[in-house]
Amino acid sequence: MSDPATAPAAPWRPRVTVACVVVRGERYLMVEEEIDGRLVYNQPAGHLDDGESLLQAAVRETLEETGWTIEPEHFLGVHQWRSTEHGEGVVRFSFSARALSHDAQRPLDRGIRRALWLTRGEIAGLGERLRSPMVLLSIDAWLGGRRLPLEALSSLLAERPRP
Fold it and tell me: Less CB within 10 Å around the terminal CB: N or C of the chain?
């Protein structure tokens, strides 16, 4: 039996998440969600599931959290952060996307109260109620003209059908 004191440490593994900046005129698609008993605001976002590409995760999370079907258009960048909620490292891949259609009857993910469209000023005014600083970072990247091609990311996974 090996000695736990001399066993190599497991490699650090951050939480990998995706998020979408979905723009309609001057408004951005946001979700109001309950986390640990408090209401917070975020873009449609969530964890990458095993076996799915980053783009598939972005489309799935947006649909599950808002009822909106989207088409990713650009890659906005990667943000690294240590969550104040759970203390773990997060690596977030942010995209911009175009809203295609909305299913108002679709049940939203557990904890999601509603989806809403807010201006950048309204979002900034939420202050501490934003789930993370990455919300404004990704909106500001989009407003600043960042539009990286989706081809900057590649996946060697087999394509899975969209939800």
Answer: N
